[in-house]
């Protein structure tokens, strides 16, 4: 029997993680220009599925921005903090400084995300900066939920 691949996770503050999973946000912006290790790791992960972890912080400034782009208002009471909410595929990493999506900030590292799948039940876990590897229990719970939703990794 083969060992399932380890899924790395990326923490994103709410309401941005909800925008990724539910509202078409296809780029996550990072200030990694001076972090060659994180940038190299991101490039190695292109094509892989990542867990999307909602950090414990809610970014109030995101609410009007998201509403302007989508017409949707995401409130803190609608969000789960400190949990894996779903999975996405990292499609590309760009650093050219030009926005490539309406969600892309100027002069940021752009993590291009696709194929978002929201878990039916968020899985509480501790986040971390950069990419991180949740423990085996979280990994297994994510795999089980995805399998129940008909998703194979």
TrEMBL record:
<dbReference type="InterPro" id="IPR015947">
    <property type="entry name" value="PUA-like_sf"/>
</dbReference>
<protein>
    <recommendedName>
        <fullName>ASCH domain-containing protein</fullName>
    </recommendedName>
</protein>
